[in-house]
C-alpha cells in the first residue's frame, strides 16, 4: 500500500472512530443522554471542573481575532472559544463532532455555523495560509498518523505573530510508566496486543475499541516538532486517579513532573 493509501486508511478509520463523540462515557456517567442546552451546560460545567487549567491556556488573541479549533469532541471548548472570539472556525475528521458544534454555535446566534465548522483532515486544513490569529487543538494531532505534517499545517494557517495551543500525550507520564511495567513481559512476545491495549487505555469507544492511532511525545521531541516557531513553551498537565487519593491532589506539582498531557504554546 502506498503512503497515500495508508494515510487514507487512517483517515477513514479516524472518521469512523471519532464519530462517537469524545466524552460520551463521561456524559453517561453524568446521566446525560440528550443534547438540550441544559444537558450540554451540565456537561460543560463538569468538563471544565475536570480540566480546571484548560481555559487558562487560551491566549488573549482569542478575544480579538480569528480562531481555528482542530478536533472538536463534545464541543465544550468549542462553545467557550466561539463565545469569546469574534471569528470562530472548527474542523474535525468526523461528522458527529461537527454536528454538535454546529448546534452549539446556532444556539449562540451564529447563523453561518455550517460554513464555520466543517469536516476535514488536520493534514489538509481547508483554509488559506496565514488565516488565523490563534489555533487551538486539544488531544487531536497525535491521532492523525502524521504528527509532523499536522504541526506543519498548524503553522501554515497561523498568521505571523499568531499563537497556537496544542495538547499532546506525554510519552514520559506516570500513566505510561505504569502501563510499561504492567505489560513488561508481554512487550516482547505480543507487541501489537500491548500497543493496542495502551491505545485503549487512552481513548476508546463505549464498546471498548481503541483509537486507530495514538502517538506519544516527550518534552524534547515536542520542542523539535515545533522548532520552526519563533517562541515555544511546553508544560505538563493532568493526572490519573490513584486508588487511595483523589486526582485533584495531583493536578499541581505532580502533574508538572509526570502529567499525562503536554500543553505546547507557540508563536509563529
Question: Describe the biggest sheet?
Answer: 8 strands, mixed
Structural class: alpha/beta
Cα(first) to Cα(last) distance is 35 Å
Residue stretches low in confidence (pLDDT < 50, at least 5 long) are none
- The CATH architecture term is 3-Layer(aba) Sandwich
Mean pLDDT: 90
Shape: globular
- The fourth-level CATH homologous superfamily is Vaccinia Virus protein VP39
CATH class: Alpha Beta
Global Rg: 18 Å
The third-level CATH topology is Rossmann fold
SSE topology string: HHHEHEHHEEHEHHHEHEHE
Question: Helix count?
Answer: 12
Quote the beta fraction.
Answer: 15-25%
Helix content: 40-55%
Q: How many structural domains does the protein architecture include? A: 1
Helix and strand layout, with pairings?
Blueprint: H1 3-17, H2 24-29, H3 37-50, E1 66-70, H4 76-84, E2 87-92, H5 95-107, H6 113-116, E3 117-119, E4 132-138, H7 147-157, E5 158-170, H8 174-182, H9 186-189, H10 191-202, E6 216-217, H11 219-225, E7 231-237, H12 253-258, E8 261-267
Parallel strand pairs: 1-2, 1-4, 2-3, 4-5, 5-6
Antiparallel strand pairs: 5-8, 7-8
What are the main properties of this structure?
single chain, about 270 residues, alpha/beta, Rossmann fold, eight-stranded mixed sheet, 12 helices, 8 strands, globular
Q: Any overview of this molecule?
A:
The protein contains 12 helices and 8 strands. The protein has 268 residues and is α/β, with parallel strands linked by helices. It has a single domain, classed as Vaccinia Virus protein VP39 (Rossmann fold, 3-Layer(aba) Sandwich). It is globular and about 50 Å long. It starts with a helix and ends with a strand.
Amino acid at each position: 500500500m502506498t503512503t497515500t493509501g495508508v494515510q487514507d486508511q487512517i483517515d477513514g478509520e479516524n472518521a469512523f472512530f471519532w464519530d462517537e463523540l469524545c466524552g460520551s462515557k463521561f456524559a453517561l456517567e453524568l446521566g446525560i443522554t440528550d443534547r438540550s442546552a441544559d444537558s450540554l451546560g451540565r456537561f460543560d460545567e463538569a468538563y471544565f471542573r475536570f480540566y480546571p487549567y484548560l481555559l487558562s491556556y487560551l491566549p488573549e488573541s482569542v478575544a480579538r481575532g480569528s480562531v481555528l479549533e482542530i478536533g472538536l469532541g463534545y464541543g465544550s471548548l468549542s462553545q467557550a472559544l466561539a463565545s469569546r472570539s469574534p471569528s470562530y472556525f472548527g474542523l474535525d475528521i468526523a461528522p458527529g463532532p461537527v454536528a454538535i458544534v454546529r448546534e452549539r454555535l446556532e444556539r449562540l446566534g451564529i447563523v453561518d455555523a455550517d460554513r464555520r465548522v466543517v469536516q476535514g483532515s488536520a493534514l489538509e486544513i481547508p483554509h488559506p495560509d496565514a488565516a488565523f490569529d490563534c489555533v487551538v487543538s486539544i488531544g487531536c494531532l497525535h491521532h492523525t498518523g502524521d504528527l509532523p505534517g499536522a504541526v506543519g499545517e498548524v503553522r501554515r494557517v497561523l498568521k505571523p505573530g499568531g499563537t497556537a495551543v496544542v495538547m499532546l500525550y506525554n510519552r514520559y507520564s506516570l500513566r505510561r510508566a505504569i502501563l510499561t511495567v504492567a505489560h513488561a513481559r508481554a512487550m516482547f512476545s505480543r507487541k501489537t496486543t500491548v500497543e493496542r491495549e495502551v491505545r485503549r487505555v487512552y481513548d476508546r469507544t463505549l464498546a471498548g475499541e481503541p483509537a486507530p492511532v495514538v502517538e506519544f511525545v516527550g518534552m524534547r521531541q515536542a520542542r523539535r516538532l515545533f522548532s520552526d516557531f519563533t517562541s515555544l513553551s511546553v508544560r505538563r498537565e493532568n493526572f490519573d486517579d490513584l486508588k487511595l487519593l483523589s486526582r485533584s491532589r495531583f493536578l499541581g506539582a505532580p502533574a508538572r513532573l509526570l502529567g499525562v498531557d503536554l500543553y505546547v504554546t507557540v508563536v509563529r
